[in-house]
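To: structure desk
From: M.T.
Subject: fold request, one chain
Message: Could you run this one when you get a chance? Sequence is below, nothing fancy, just the single chain.
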Amino acid sequence: MTELQVKTKKGSLKKFLAMFLAVCVCMTTFQLNGMFASANSENPNSKVESATKPDASKPNASKPDASKPDATVTPTPTPVPTTPAAKPTTPAAKPTTPAAKPTTPAAKPTVTPVPTVTPTPAPTQPTKKTVKVKKVTASAKTLYIVVKKKATVGATVEPANATNKKITWTSAKKSVASVKAGKNGSSATITAGKKAGKTTVTAKAGGKSTKITVNVVKKAKKATSIKLNKKTAKMNTGETLALTATLNKGATTAVKWSTSDKKVATVANGVVTAKKNAGVVTITAKADKKSAKCVITVTKKGAKKVTLQKSKATIKVKKSVTIKIKSPKGDKISKCTSSNKKVATVTNKGKVTGKKAGKADITVVTKKGGVATFKVTVKKK
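Reply: Done. Structure tokens follow.
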């Protein structure tokens, strides 16, 4: 082998070794940089030290020149930004149910406030319509009473639904005769004084009044006649009516009152009170052997007017006719009565039979409380 070849081989070997050494240094540097980076990530506050120290045994181990960069000096690694501890993605669970508040607050001491504003008064109820009294009627217009004796009279107010129906009684001359009202005011007792005389007793209600002339006499006198102010009348159940009786002049006999049917109407001191049953009733006023009558038809309050298919008929003795209702529809006959049973009789179903020649009134009462009158004339055969 020639000298040129030996030199060439030696030169190549040196280059190879130099390159190999450079590669090793680079690999070592990369490994140390990785270690420092790992250390810095675990402890960011630690100081970064040089990865290598200059080797004094080597010619290039002296302190490098600051003016020239040395490839062998390991550059200071760039600090890796510290990654903050991850915040929890889910916030701490808040209590879904708030702490229960006390349902009943602690009782506070009661303090009565002093009213500074006048409280609004409660709304007043609507005022009912006032029904004025139209008439006051007494059971007598003139009385004759023996000294120291008594007489009882009655009075009523019209209309029946009048707002002020209370009756007050007064005497113009108490020395001649005094008056005392009954419990409900519808009646009064007149007491004659010790001496004969004349006075006026007044019954008053709702601005209306009626007067009774009272004559106090020394001797009694019998009644020879009596009359009533009405022979017929109509009433609704629950209503009242005063009948006025008039005796012959000077008669001191007390009038006695009676009814034909207490279930239909009652009477006291001339005041008739219709009961709950509809029908026809006869009120009788009697003084000594004389009497007067009033036929009263009592209809149930609110009942519709009753119309008959025929309101009158003429039949012969022993013949019959049947009463029938035209209106109101659906109503039926409940009871029938005859004013003169000697002339004609009637059943509760409305069958009328002639007895003898004459006339009679048949009263028809329906189940709904209506009343009608059927007139019958009976002739001989």
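Reply (cont.): The chain has one helix and 26 strands. Let me know if you need anything else for the meeting.
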